[in-house]
Amino acid sequence: MAQQLGGTLAPLMSSVQAQRTALSLVQPLAVALPHLRALSTSRGAFSQQQKAEAQQGQQASTSGSEQQQQQQESTGAGEQAQNFYNSFKAGYEHVKSKAAGASAGSGEGPQGKRLLQTLAKDLREVLLPAQDITSATRVYTGPVASVSYDGPTALVLAKEQATGWQKVWDTMQDKLSGIPGINKILNVKVTDTAAFKKGQEMVEDLKDKYETSDHPVVHKVEDLKSRMFTGSEASRAMREIRSRDPSFDMNRFVQMVKVDAPTVVRAFLKHDLEALQLHCGPELLERFGGIFKHFNEQGVFEDPSILFIGDVEIVEVRLMEDDPFIICQFHCQQLKCTRDKFGNVIDGSANQIQRVYYFWGLQQEKSPIVTAEGKVLPPRWVIKDMMWQSMLALV
Length: 395
Known about the structure:
Helices cover 57% and strands 17% of the residues. It contains ten helices and eight strands. The strands form two sheets. Strands 1, 2, 3, 4, 5 and 8 form a six-stranded antiparallel β-sheet that branches. A two-stranded antiparallel sheet has the order 6-7.
């Protein structure tokens, strides 16, 4: 019985002891648990504070990096501009040095230097037009140089002196003329022989057949011959222009015509024949006189206001009656209205703008003019014809 009771209580006792042992172990943990919770809370707050500070530091670093990036970008743009200028300058110096080396190495002359001078001249004329652009069509009314000659003016016949070979031939001919047979041979003219006359007739017949032939090959040969030996009409006209004015420049000529355009157009709109006489030829003045007479009888005139003048363009260069003839065009923006003698608008509107195209036919005079100071003025270009055409209004 005691043994059975001991066998039953032994496991119970062992379980009680185990519970006590576990309680003794858990009790310190329960006491330390609030301290652990407080410690964990303080650590969490500290970690959140650190996280906020880290975020603030990251934002500050981000803004600082953005400012630094902007500074880098601005610095980079400035460096790019500086690098571009340096590369352009280096390239220009390289080309200049090569041109100078080529001119120094060539035996024909400073080709590269002339090329750079020509390039600089063209750029200067385009970007900075010359200030001495004068009129191309205005007649010179100032004093001219008087050329007087007081010497003899009669024609005198002078014997041409014979050369050495001609003297020898004349001497031999005089000696051989005494022999009858040789004298007969020397006096024979080839043009009087029957064979020469027959051959000349054959040549004339072939020439007539060639000139009157309609064969396409003949036309092609004539066109090729005309292009090879005479050139185009424009090239012949330019040769004639430069023979009369060796310093002629087409770019300068265009600028000179643009200087004359507002003066001539305004005089035409005002019906001012006196001003037009300084620029136009007699045929054109006669035609203008008839037009102005018609308007004056009605007591009306066109508004002379010119708002804008476009660039002058060369249409054609040709020869007319052996004189160079240049056709150019430009446009003007004018007020489309007609006024009476009191200035009242009777047709159109003072607020309506039209574009009018003008075509000028300019003919070059034959000789230049020498002023009293000794300055040589190039031959004048006379306005021989003028046409105009108005387009639809811009406003």
